[in-house]
Amino acid sequence: MRHLTEIDDLDADELGRVLELASLPDAPRVLAGKGAALVFEKPSARTRNSMEMAVVQLGGHPVYIQGGEVGLDRRESVEDVTRTLACYHAVVGARVYDHAVVERMAAVDVVPVVNMLSDTAHPLQALADLLTLRREFGELAGRVVAYVGDANNVARSLALAGAMAGMAVRVAAPPGHTFADADRTRIESVAAAHGGALVVTDDPHRAVNGADAVYTDVWTSMGQEDEAEQRRADFAGFTVDGRLMAEARHGAIFLHCLPAHRGEEVTADVVDGPRSRVWVQAANRMHAARGLLAWLVGEAV
Ligand code: CP
Ligand code: NVA
What we know:
This protein has helices at residues 12-22, 46-57, 67-70, 78-86, 99-108, 123-137, 153-164, 181-194, 204-208, 228-234, 242-245, 268-271, 278-298, and strands at residues 35-40, 61-66, 91-95, 113-115, 144-148, 168-172, 197-201, 213-216, 253-256. It has 13 helices and 9 strands. Norvaline binds next to helix 7.
């Protein structure tokens, strides 16, 4: 029984296999007659729809469940909800606040569990990001991805995924919004094992200089809405605009997991401009989800 709580739950070969499955023209019908329970404690446009359609393409039936309906640790323990869903479904996905919830679901170990975003990690996004980067650049070893903004769930999974692919990952975040020491150590050790590298800085220019891809995410993540005003102040100078993009390699691409806030973390001319690959990236969410589910249900059991 395998799970995806964070991208490095996969080893590099498994990650490669998932990306290969994501690129197959014909989806294997590994979920024929089976269900996928998708529990959301937070809103979603891309994750819900890409997961639901990936399940359909694999022949299965997705069931969308609002967190409040099953009441994780309120109506019933996380463990009992997981055991219950496993009675009917071949896979359980969960979008949660506390990362420990998705880890507890996986620890029950009765059904493959997929983290559909927690406060700590967004591994499905990282899979789609690697797919997007690979389709753009082919081999990724030695390529440079610069992440500018909040060292959040998306940044952490991206950095781990990039490190596993042998990329040089640069993360520019303001003081107070950078990686915790434990995250940094984990990413550095993954990078060391795969020929990648991690640079953490508070200088967006240093991060972006000569990079192949520039990536950003919202300054205020779901659950942090009360901090929005303070965060806008903290992240001043971290907007990815045309001038910052001009410091990247000629022909560098722009990535964003979306939703985007034009005028905050990115300007409209960048996110809507010719270097932007954000819609390819969004479309790749479905291919990545399909590859992951095909592997979890069809090969990893
Ligand atoms: N990128 C992403 O996860 O988008 P949603 O929050 O809309 O699912
Ligand atoms: N960091 C963002 C990502 C949204 C896909 C959040 O957690 O809200």
